[in-house]
Write a structure and sequence with these properties.
Elements: E1 28-29, E2 44-55, E3 58-67, E4 72-79, E5 86-91, E6 94-95, E7 107-115, E8 118-126, E9 130-137, E10 143-146, E11 154-159, E12 168-174, E13 185-190, E14 197-203, E15 215-218, E16 223-225, E17 228-239, E18 242-252, E19 260-263, H1 274-277, E20 285-293, E21 298-305, E22 309-316, H2 317-326
Parallel strand pairs: 6-10
Antiparallel strand pairs: 1-22, 2-3, 3-4, 4-5, 7-8, 8-9, 9-10, 11-12, 12-13, 13-14, 15-17, 16-17, 17-18, 18-19, 20-21, 21-22
The protein binds beta-D-mannopyranose.
Amino acid sequence: MSKVQIIGENLSNLPWQDKPEGAVGPVWRHAENPVIGRNPAKGIARIFNSAVVPYEGKFVGVFRAETINGRPHLHLGYSDDGLQWKIDEERIPFVNEAGQPFQPNYAYDPRLVKVEDTYYIIWCTDFYGASIGVAKTKDFKSFIRLENPFLPFNRNGVLFPRKINGNFMMLSRPSDSGHTPFGDVFLSESPDFVYWGKHRHVMSKGGQGWWQSVKIGGGPAPIETSEGWLMFYHGVTGTCNGLVYSMGAVILDLDEPSRVKYRSSTYVLTPEEWYEERGFVPNVVFPCATLTDAATGRIAIYYGAADTYVGVAYTTVQEIVDYVKATHETVGDDAEIGVM
Ligand code: BMA
């Protein structure tokens, strides 16, 4: 197979473990998972489905903190090595664009994406039901909450790490406000981060297998590679005992990212370990962030486990891209631009 490269920055200090002998599949777990356990800070019962970035030689993250009254809010966390995290006891002190304090009624499943010199936080917020909330920071000290980009109901807002053809690009998964029984991934673009349009369908749930038969949702920010935008995402199946969340991988066209080039017909990670199978919601792996090193092609994936813990998993760009191409299937009109 041809040599695949990450188009991006080097990050020699990203967490890493080599693939263990006998590991099954293209993604392997950090041996000391979970990296964040229960009751990680005062007033916080569980942390999961969270996002991290490299910052000033270390790491910073926006964490989904399930507080001890059961509501999720967003808290910052800091780490020297990307594995041991110190979580703020206070919520992120958002202000609105007029400078007044703002707190969402609830906030969950954050993504954290740097575009140019700005870090954007994208999360699921309450806007007359589940919708996408956005905020920005440059220094992780002041956080400006911006206008909600989309109408309700919507979740899994995932920003691309650079503008494409001059515009910001954001994936999302329109659906309902409850424990959504349906959903495909769509793309919207914006010249200014205020007005969003040119909506496109990107990828459908379904396919030959059953692991993504109920719904799918974008995961970490897509990774730019020589083969296209590589994105990990979650795919959900239904059982008599409830939903099961697995991780899939897809490669989108670099210039027209609403076109799927390759998509794995099998999951790349599914709940198998105790911390994925047992917790507040059993059988969930839910990826929200990656760290990447262009020099080595290494990728560290941060995922929520069982709505209770944070896990880390690893792959290389070569291994995962080869795997996705080898297991590719076309689902519905994924290969099309997605306009009707
Ligand atoms: C989804 C979201 C995720 C959660 C998952 C499994 O609808 O709420 O935050 O991880 O359900 O409970």
